[in-house]
Prior knowledge:
- The protein is an alpha+beta fold.
- It has one domain: Roll (Thiol Ester Dehydrase, Chain A).
- Helices cover 16% and strands 44% of the residues.
- It is built from two helices and six strands; from the N terminus they run αββαββββ.
- The protein has a six-stranded antiparallel β-sheet.
- Strand 1 and strand 2 form a beta hairpin.
- The relative contact order is 0.22.
Amino acid sequence: xxxxxxxxxxxxxxxxxxxxxxxxxxxxxxxxxxxxxxxxxxxxxxxxxxxxxxxxxxxxxxxxxxxxxxxxxxxxxxxxxxxxxxxxxxxxxxxxxxxxxxxxxxxxxxxxxxxxxxxxxxxxxxxxx
Length: 129
């Protein structure tokens, strides 16, 4: 399936899409040194969130999708050099609103979970701004 949103995203920072289906996606990210917050190699949580957000956006896969809210839990740290995979699934669709469940795994370990509330707009969010 063709990705219809977030087409200019940097896969080195937000992940590389591996699969996009009807209401689902899988995105892989290998953390690099630009993401570290300290000399221990701890990755800033914003990059893990960005991966999960990107997975949610392409699970909906509409050109005018925007994030409205997110309920998330960081469950384990990610270190530079580790690869994490986000799996997203649309679990509710009502009108313009989509709720997307996202889980981020490092191997068999779940490091992040979230429920993303997204909205499909008639036009790009910046039109008329």
